[in-house]
Amino acid sequence: MQGKTKIAVVVRDDLATWQRLNVTAFLVSGIAAKCPETVGVDYEDASGQRYLPMFGLPVLVYLADAEALRSAHRKALDRELGLSVYTEELFATGNDVDNRAAVRAVPTEKLSLVGIGVYGPRNPVDKALKGLVLHP
Description:
The protein is α+β, with helices and mostly antiparallel strands. It has helices at residues 17-34, 66-78, 96-104, 122-128; strands spanning 5-12, 43-44, 50-51, 59-64, 82-87, 113-121, 133-134.
């Protein structure tokens, strides 16, 4: 599936570096959990030590301002792509239950997005993210 699908993350450009990295990690975890076809098999070194599997395809990370992030979110929803979200409120929560409650409390169009994770067929993902720049 590597050539036919794509994993992408879009993070808001005004976040601190540690926040961008943290948001990216959280967003791709949702893709791995719900889309097992994206994950390869365990790694093993020459000594026989085994390691956890990783994605079997690249993860592209983009930067966007708040408006472009909202637009990409809407386009991804319209194209029915796999989507994970990270909202500003999640920086203040300390566990998954509170994270889900914070997202559930806000209607889609009012989410204060700081990042999205997108997975799906390559062309629809590219169209949803058209015009965004890759993270340097």
